[in-house]
Design a protein that fits this description.
This protein is α/β, with parallel strands linked by helices and 278 residues long. The chain has 2 domains: 3-129 and 203-277, Alpha/Beta hydrolase fold, catalytic domain (Rossmann fold); 131-201, no CATH class. It has helices at residues 39-45, 72-86, 98-110, 131-146, 149-160, 162-168, 185-191, 199-209, 237-245, 261-264, 266-277; strands at residues 3-7, 10-17, 24-28, 50-54, 91-96, 115-121, 223-228, 250-254. It has an 8-stranded mixed beta sheet with strand order 1-2-4-3-5-6-7-8, with helices on both faces. Helix 2 (72-86) crosses helix 3 and helix 5 (149-160) crosses helix 6. The longest helix has 16 residues, at 131-146. The two termini are 27 Å apart.
């Protein structure tokens, strides 16, 4: 059941799973996404961990103020306030895509001493996405800021004609047509939410503006980088860069996998995750 917390006078939606006496994990989703991306992951973690998965401000069921601060630093501060709310002194942090960027900032700059372990799943490092994501997908977000109804129209057209969904979202999956289209319908709906007309663009600008490369050396928590080898959204070169700047990090590349290992190669992804966490 969805619960809410007030942070800086804004409502943040979140779910919890597992016993509160277990080691805590906060799971952070990415750009134009939602906390539901962690559902299957949490099903495997909740026996041994206490899992908290929020919707970032601007996304999912959280508030989406037009004048909100969607910088990577501010989103990381909100995650830390969630940890404070639950009384977590030290905690594990897992982030996907922009969420990976947020948790990496948290572990490198905001509160390195409070992070027990860090997992970045296809996380952004340099602030730059693939050429196609920047050129096409970001252009759609910019257009939809002026015409929010474009989101609903795009969703309806994607549902009526699957080739359009494959074309718009091909940066998400390796060989996208091999991924059952119904399995990521909710993710299409969340990504094409007209309520994100302003937050989506601002969050994308913030992602592009945050290059974490110089601060990676400050991370002291055990770190694992998980990446789909054929990620069409975040170039895999950013995984190698992360490893180069933080040699102690464990790098796990998953072949024949795009931007969502938790969907496309779940078994390979969860095995690596469980081994690292335990």
């Amino acid at each position: 059941m969805t619960e809410y917390i007030q942070i800086d006078n804004q409502q943040i939606a979140y779910d919890t799973a597992g016993y509160s006496s277990n080691p805590p994990i906060i799971l952070v989703h990415g750009l134009m996404s939602h906390r539901g991306v962690w559902t299957q992951t949490i099903e495997r973690l909740q026996e041994n961990f206490f899992c908290v998965s929020p919707d970032l401000l601007g996304f999912g069921e959280s508030d989406k103020p037009a004048d909100g601060d969607y910088t990577i630093a501010k989103q990381a501060e909100r995650i830390l306030k969630i940890a404070d709310y639950f009384g977590f002194d030290k905690f594990i942090i897992i982030g996907h895509s922009m969420g990976g960027q947020i948790v990496t900032y948290l572990a490198a700059t905001l509160a390195p001493q409070r992070i027990h372990k860090l997992v970045s799943v296809d996380g952004v490092v340099t602030g730059k996405l693939s050429d196609r994501a920047q050129r096409l997908n970001r252009s759609l977000v910019l257009l939809a800021e002026k015409f929010p109804s474009l989101y609903d129209l795009s969703f309806e057209l994607c549902e009526a004609w699957s080739p359009l969904a494959y074309w718009i979202f091909q940066v998400w999956f390796y060989k996208i047509k091999e991924v059952p289209i119904d399995s990521w319908k909710l993710d299409r709906r969340k990504a094409l939410n007209p309520a994100m007309a302003w937050s989506g663009r601002k969050a994308w600008d913030s992602l592009n503006a945050a290059d974490l490369t110089p601060s990676l050396k400050n991370i002291i928590a055990p770190t694992m980088i998980v990446f789909g080898k054929q990620d069409g959204t975040v170039p895999v070169s950013q995984a190698y860069l992360f490893k180069e700047k933080l040699p102690s990090a464990q790098l796990e590349l998953i072949d024949e996998c795009g931007h969502f290992p938790m969907y496309q190669k779940f078994d390979a992804y969860i095995q690596r995750l469980l081994k690292f966490l335990k």
